[in-house]
Structure formats: structure tokens, C-alpha cells
Amino acid sequence: MKQERIEFGELSYSPCRYGASRMLFRGPRRRLDRPYLAFIGGTETYGKFIEKPFPALVEKAMRQTCVNLGCVNGGIDVFVNDPTIMEMCGEADMTVVQIMGANHLSNRFYSVHPRRNDRFLKASTVLQAIYSDVDFSEFSFTRHMLSELHAKSLERFDTVVHELREAWVARMRNMLHQIGQRSILLWFSEEELSDAHWSERENQLQADPLFVTASMIDELRPLVKEVVVANPSEASLARGTEGMFFPPSQEAAASEMLGAACHVDASAAIVPALREQLYAI
After folding, report:
1. Which domains does the chain possess?
2. Would you say the pTM of this structure is higher than 0.85?
3. Over the stretch 32-60, which tens digit does the pLDDT of each residue have?
4. CA within 13 Å, CB half, 96
């Protein structure tokens, strides 16, 4: 039966819940009454279209239970505002936190859906005043909204980016304080971790994690054990959707994601860092 599902481009994600959390996570459900490693992050951590995303690969390499708490299109808000997730991470031997974009969080200018953080809910009166020439009722997704704001005015858009970055750092500090010192930040992206202006990046507003810079990460280093940078190799990127499973209607979406080979690269970067930190405890 499993082979039939894979042949038709489908994976069984075995959705499950933990505690009082309203979120559905990728299963099978893991036991929490024995030592475990926790993973939180967005679509990459969840492993959409990937049979063995990097948390599963790390579990095999480390021979230790890994709890995948990734959320498709998730941002910081979905985790920091969920007491169950924060408690699970705080009790883990180590938590790997995928660095997520600054666009997927509520801030002084706009609010996002509490669980689907890519969904735009509404603009604040401040943002409406800055962009009085924009009809915000037309937007359902944050990236679409930001693209339109960028097209309207570069000068005004820089004000928005500045706000998103400040909100991101503050929210990350909050989350990392809740998790505790046993955490590792993971930069998993084809983009280099640098201070290059977002407009200088090859993918610009399509880049992930959006608007996050090396300087922002440096502000968080005192709160974590290590920062792991996992840039997939050119060879892995060139393999595209090879090893991914998706229906034909999702081919375009899958082609924009990091493929199975990239997850192998991420695992190879994470495992040595975890071993070093766990042995040091």
C-alpha cells in the first residue's frame, strides 16, 4: 500500500498531536518519556514532499528519538505562542530551531494567522497610513502583500523591512528564552548567511528565510549552543525534485523547495554539532 501511495506521488505524514497543542505534527507520534531531540521550523523541517526529512535522517544517525515539530508555512509565532511546544522543547536534550523568515510573524504593521503564519490577516492603522494607496483587502498571503508594497515604494518598503527585522529578533529572543540554553539554530537555505541587502540576493522577495541577516543571528548567539549553517551543495540543488513525492498538481510548488538530497546535506551538518554539544553536557 505504501508503494502505491509513493507511485502516485503521495506520502503518508501520519499526522499526530502532542498534549494540549492544537497543531497537527508529522508523525508517527514519538514517546516523550525517554530522552529525545526536538526540531521546530517551517516547511523544510516538516519535510513536505520528502519521505525522510532531515529530522528523520538525524534520528537514524544519532540513534536517538527525534520529535518533528515542523509546521508547513510556519513562522516563529506558531511556536512561541504554544505552551505545549515550548514545554516539549524545554524538556528535550537539545532543540534544533530552523531559522524562519521575518515575514511570517505578527508585528506593528500587520498580523498573521496564529497557526498558518504565511496567511495575512489585516494591516494595522499605521501601515494603512503609510500605504494609503493600497487596498489591503486584496491580500491573503504575506509574501504577495509584501511584493505589492515593494512595487509601490522602495523607500516606504524599507520602513516595513526594518520593523519586521526588529520584531523577528524580539520574538526569537522570547522563544529561545522559553526553550532554554539547550538549543541550536539552523540556517537551512540555498541563500548564504550574510549581511547582504535583501535586494542583492538572487531570489530577492522569494528568498528564504526572508529578511534575516547574519547580524540578526549574531544577536542571538549568546542564547544558543551553536549556529549551524547548512547550505546545500550545487550537486544536491541540481537534483531538484528527485526523490520527492507529490501529485502532478503540486509539481511547481515542489520545484521551489529544497529536495531530498538537500535534506541529506542538512543532516550531515547537524549531526556533528549535536554530538559535540550533547557530549559536552
Report:
1. 2-280 (3.40.50)
2. yes
3. 999 999 999 999 999 999 999 999 999 99
4. 36
